[in-house]
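Good morning C.,

I know you're traveling, so I'll keep this short. The sequence:
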Amino acid sequence: MNVLSLFDGMACGRIALERAGIPVDNYFAAEIDKYAIQIAQKNYPEIIQLGDVKNINEKMHLPSIDLVIGGSPCQGFSRAGKGLNFEDPRSALFFEYVRILNKVAPQYFLLENVQMKQHHQKVVNAFLGVKPLKINSALLSAQNRVRLYWTNIPNIKQPEDKQIILSDILEKGSVDREKSYCIDANYFKGGNLKSYFEKHRRQLVFSEPPPLPLASPNLLVREATKKGYTEIKDGDCFDATFLKSKTRRGRNMKDKSNCLTAATYDYMRYEYPTYRKLTPTECERLQTVPDGYTAGVSNTQRYKMLGNGWTVDVVAHILRGIL
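The tokens, ready to paste straight into the viewer:
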């Protein structure tokens, strides 16, 4: 099979084809990011790099193409972007996909993109002649990543849930949820981890077990008040004596310690567990990419290409329909 991959990135499509058991004669890739190309060529030296999609034309003399795949840039459609849609020059590259698809007229095609407004989705539907299938990567990985897939590969259904949770893919540490937030190309570029987590809701990992309740960075301690508890924040001291008591109050010691008595006492300082970001290997596992696949470039570039990449097992699930 001859495959043309547009916006190829680090060649997730090539991994998916291999995982789906589809033999590849030639794999042509259109990509401009030098780091993504470096990783693609490290893992698959036989890939034929074509450069910018805008330069693909009749002069290239490509052989007959059986499958065109690609995920045109999504920034114009993403909720995290400015909502420029097709007016964003990156998302306007969708029309390059359409131009090349019409030019090579393959037997099969696959286009991936983010969820978008119905109006813009209908534009894509009209150009491709099919409606998309919405699949959440959470079915096949530990990551919540809802994407739309337009394809003419027949009889594609929702994949069976593999029941993979976030703790399954960690090298070490613990987490506060079953599925990761969606990893994107901007996954942690530096700064204070705690404020980054709270502001951007990017997935981070606890180097130590997280406190309860899991959804809050604060500790809730029983207290004989109307609420029934007091909230202990990072750095606060509190009275943990007779922790199960239903009558004690004033457990949060704001400025002064509680009075010492002859009774057993247990005064504590609450320190919120240490944060860390997901490692590149853990992000590879979120995208169901082989461990170490992106090694060889800086971590910043690894996070970027993984965020821009595909969840490989989802794409492999779709491509198996060809068989």
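Safe travels,
E.
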